[in-house]
Amino acid sequence: MEISATLVLLVLLTLFTFLQNVANGFDSCPHTYTINPFKYRVPENQPYRTSYHFQPPQNWMNDPNGPMYYKGVYHLFYQHNPNAATFGDGIVWGHSVSYDLINWIHLNNAIEPSESYDIISCWSGSATILLDGKPIIMYTGIDHNRHQVQNLAMPKNLSDPFLREWVKHTHNPVITPTDEVAEVDNFRDPSTAWHGKDGKWRIIIGAQKGDEGRTILYQSEDFVNWKLDPIPFYATDNTGVCECPDFYPVSINGTNGVDTSVESLSVRHVAKVGYLRMAHDYYFVGKYLSDEERFIADAKFTGTCLDLRYDYGKFYASKSFFDYAKNRRILWGWVNESDSERDDIQKGWAGVQSIPRQVWLDNKSMNRLVQWPIEEVENLRSKNMSINGEKLVGGSILEVSGITASQADIEVLFELPELEDNAESLDLSGVDPQLLCSNAARSGIIGPFGLLALASKDLREHTAISFRVYKTSNKYVGLMCSDQSRSSLRSDLDKTTYGTFFDVDSNLRTISLRSLIDHSIIESFGEGGRVCISSRVYPSLATASDAHLYVFNNGTTSVIISKLNAWCIKEAEIGHLKNMSYKTC
Question: Which SUPFAM superfamilies match (predicted)?
């Protein structure tokens, strides 16, 4: 009989608690560290609740906080409202643990409002592994004046690999905003710390001063007493507050990740900020001059489609960490809802986390990142079907049958026609890719072609993930789109269409696509993860077994499905008793 890793984890949690009580002579009431599965329930009929994306048992979730790897266990902390399916006061740090970043056990909250410096809410922050191997959390507290201050929390018992209890530092708050660098209500989300060559720790904090968004650098020798650098580490005009900043090195020599503190000629650095006003995460690749405490980005923020984003759909407040177990950098992102607050209250929950992504520097361009779903998600693959060498003539559509289309993983490689003779001309200056993506049914020459996901049998509902190829003055570019305009018959939804450009290699003449479909979320990775688009959709017809998947070509020239593989994805073990065994596809 196969025993799941999550079941083993739950047994270990129970055994550890029992041994603790034995050691204490059972003098005190036994503590329960896993969430009660009967207390936390959502309504039964849940066509949009995901099966292999991380969600808490119920209520609101937003930012991933300080994910980390400690003593063989992955930890995910997240912003959570335990009292409602909407955002509000009383935000806590939810906490779950895993051996593989896919199957999870929910623990009790790690950090909750309790003191004057965080009595309103415990907002986002990060975890850092100190030089002695001990983890520490820095988080933003909303104090009794509704000012934003930075606080520390440490594990109560370091011998517990699940780190189920956390205690707050006696010197909290350790950082408070000063008028010359930040507004008291826009000073939040400390980053994971890095350790400099001078022996000092450094963090950056998101802030706003006037209408300038900025990240502010602090230094410390002991992680408790912090000194402000008055010059912003990174700043942009007319953007409003920077949220959830991240700063880390990436290797120039391959896909492996490196520790956050690494400085050498073999790495470049990435600075990421989230602009609340736009609800997008932007990243900048560049050079870190540690001696001058400066980061020089390859390109400045322009507020146009030229700016680099992790994801051109719904993906915000992201956080990365270095996975020491597998020498990789892992990225999480919050994917919020596209329905109404009233819908969320009725569902009893809101918010999912993306599938964790491995992220590395594109060694071809050296100036952008590549993202790919972690390999562990492939362990959930079940039924498989494949298509090879199938020609898709203009206007054709082909169903991908034999799998559960509402819970699937699809990889497809398209072979393109001769680009010189067929690609349409396009002047990229001032072109908005989202406007070009407004309707995937509109015919071009090479494309649109791609997938129709979460489609009804009559195609009245579908989400089109598609490509189109253009010729510019000096290169070929692809347009990747995720068109939600026909995703549901419902009219009370955000059906924004997403799109972005990418370079096409005229020698290869291929475009690849991978899409992870999970009931109400579609994560798509174009060109091997060089461009990514995530979307939330809520079909009324194409749910569960009534969902279909198609490959289509609306261009006038043919494309070839060089190879396509599609798998049904089993349900991950996330949380508590009702998920303790996989559901079949």
Answer: Arabinanase/levansucrase/invertase, Concanavalin A-like lectins/glucanases
